[in-house]
Amino acid sequence: LYPIVGWKIGKEITYVAEGSITDTGSLIEWAKSMGFIDDVSDTAKIAESVPDSDGVYFVGAFSGLQAPINDDKAATTLIGLKPTTTKAHVVRAILENLAFRVKVLYETILSETRIPLSHIRANGGVCNNDFLMQLIADFTNQTIDRAKQRANMTSLGVAFLAGLAKEVWKNKAELREIRESETVFVAEKDVWSRYKDRFVHWEKAVIRSREWYN
């Protein structure tokens, strides 16, 4: 994780521990450009059309692998293809890869900050995927709170800070009242136990993807 300044309001400075996973949106767009999906909104339904990825594993690394792996020479990897592999298996492997990455990052947050988390808040385009949100809840054993306002969050944050500076809002408490939850995903029992072996194989795929480029 990387300690950075999150924002400054007056004399108050808020620091954050940043752990990023890039390419989440571009992975889905890539899958569309390759013909694995026709409509991004269909990815959850496609992934749920098969019981598992049929031994297919995907490692998304178009911009390398970020924390805690930190390998800018890693290559995107699709491994385990067989004659029985279908588009649905590939789509499910792509979404499972994102959930695995979040799990690894979540565990890094717990170990490095030593701050217990009560829930996870989700926003951004990728969180529109119900299958992925539920999988992340199951992998982290946390409640995922998806906001109604989840698009263009960076711009919204800038607007909030500007509004505070110009006294559109009096304080941060007023901003908290603006946020609304749309869906809450609760972890389901025994899901992670079924995924443990798949996670081990995904980690092997990650090892194969690392330090590919000179």
Structural features:
single chain; alpha+beta; two-stranded antiparallel ribbon; 43% helix
Strand order of the largest sheet: 5-6-7
Distance between the termini: 25 Å
Looking at the structure, what is the overall shape? globular
Q: How many helices? A: 7
Q: How is the main sheet built?
A: 3 strands, mixed
Helical content (DSSP H or I, runs of 4+) = 40-55%
User: How many strands in all?
Assistant: 7
- The portion of residues forming beta strands comes to 15-25%
Q: Please mark out the parts with pLDDT under 50 across 5 or more consecutive residues, or reply none.
A: none
**How big is the Rg?**
19 Å
Protein structure class: alpha+beta
- Element-by-element helix/strand order: EEHHEEHEHEHHEH
What does the average pLDDT come to?
93
How would you characterize the overall build of this protein?
- Helices cover 43% and strands 15% of the residues.
- The chain is built from 7 helices and 7 strands; from the N terminus they run ββααββαβαβααβα.
- The protein has helices at 24-33, 43-47, 87-113, 130-140, 153-165, 172-178, 191-209; strands at 2-9, 12-18, 57-59, 77-79, 120-122, 144-147, 181-185.
- The strands form 3 sheets. Strands 5-6-7 form a 3-stranded mixed sheet. It has a two-stranded antiparallel sheet with strand order 1-2. Strands 3-4 form a two-stranded antiparallel sheet.
- Helix 3 crosses helix 4 (130-140).
- It starts with a strand and ends in a 5-residue tail after the last helix.
